[in-house]
Amino acid sequence: MKSRDGVIRLKRFEVDEKRRKVADIESMIAEFNDMAVDLDRQIAVEQERAGVSDVNHYAYPTFAKAAMQRRDNLAVSVAGLEAKLSAAKGELEEAEEELRKIEALQGRETDRGREVEPETGFGMIGVARAAG
Predict the structure, then answer these.
(1) Residue 21 lies in domain
(2) How far apart (Å, rounded) are the C-alpha atoms in residues 86 and 25?
(3) Which of 3, 27, 80, 97 is the least crowded, having the fewest Cβ atoms under 10 Å away?
């Protein structure tokens, strides 16, 4: 029984760890999206200040070009993180399913233990009556 409790604790720890991983990835995606929005604002301000919105124009601001490159890199990173998030959610679902199975097995064994106790108690009463 105690070894099963240890297994349940281990599985709960694994599930919690996978939840943290999913939350961390979601947090990173949100941060990257916020940074991309900030870069979009900076690009718009720089274009307005320079009066040039054509990226191929010779007078297009270098800062705006660099900010666009950073924004594009963030978009690529977000796409990669979304793939990792999908995989992490799958791992979390698998870990939760394993935990549910082990807890259900533990519950069945506990129920069996309760069923056996009354039967043995009645058996002992019969033995006591026969002896007495």
Answers:
(1) 2-131
(2) 10
(3) 3
Q: What is the spatial distance between Cα 87 and Cα 95, in angstroms, rounded to a whole number?
A: 12
62 with 10: CB under 8 angstroms?
no
Q: What's the pLDDT tens digit per position in 62-71? A: 999 999 999 9
**What is the pTM for the complete model shown?**
0.72
Q: What is d(CA 77, CA 88) in angstroms, rounded to the nearest whole number?
A: 16
CA angle 7, 8, 14 (to 5 degrees): 90
Alpha helices in 51-61 (DSSP H): none
| Residue pointed to by tokens 């990669």 | 80
Tell me the CB-side half-sphere exposure of residue 51, using CA atoms within 13 A: 0
What six digits make up the tokens of 27? Answer: 């947090």
